[in-house]
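We modelled the chain as a single entity of 300 amino acids. Its sequence is:
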Amino acid sequence: MTAEKTDLPKITFLGLGQMGLPMAANLVSAGYRVQGCDLSEEARLQASKAGIFTSATPVEAASHTDIIITILPNGGIVRDALLGVDGALAAKAPPRLVIDMSSSAPTDTIALGYYLEARGIVLMDAPVSGGRKRAIDGSLTIMAGGADAVITQAEPALLAMGERVFRCGGLGAGHAMKAINNYVSGAGAVAAMEALVLGQSFGLDPEKMVDILNVSTGRNNTTEAKLRQFVLSESYASGFGLGLMAKDIGIAAELAEAQGVKLPTLRAMAALWRNAADTLQDGSDHTEIFRYLTLAQDRG
């Protein structure tokens, strides 16, 4: 573990789950002092082992901090963690900067930014892509939204967690890009898995199908990194929840509606993923949408 560097800003990290814990641990390795918070006692225990100081409540975690980073299931939970009764911004000395690395709705992010700005606090969004594996090795892709000067200020900490930081535009642009990315990812996953269902119905070997797709024009992230690893193995353990994918694609669909853009495939994908999330049990991995597509054959 790298020794703490006293010249670096102190960071409060809200959310120590599948993604948040390794990201916070990489900040510690880069020399940051990190005070973490999570509702789960087990998550706090694992964080302590990684050199992260832990607190049970956001307000306690943020009592002495320069930057708050959030990576939580949705924007509503982010807002509550910041502004609720025991929220981080109830601390006597609020931070100068909040970085929301969750997958939140861009319109909600903009509204929260105005609210915080009136209280002297700057908000930027910086959602990530790459999954738990890249969260662990610090190679995440980070999509940043906010003023250039703010992103520049945050960039050293962001690069402790990710390989590349893309400046997407003003506040909310990172969250918009993340939703769009996950729509493309989710649509590609459905296409690849429907291909397996169709091929198997004709008697094609699914292993050979994956080999052919991966050296042909049909290859995508799912064919390369998910079909054999999580679907054909039936492990369904990619580390990214089906409900979260449904939420993100839903955000993209809502954004399209707000922009007055008619995108029928996006609408169809949002409905399909939401139906899958409602059908399968809570906590299902997003690769389990293959099970939903298979069940659809039985339903006729």
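As a brief sanity check on the tokenised model: The chain has 14 helices and nine strands. The chain has a mean pLDDT of 95.
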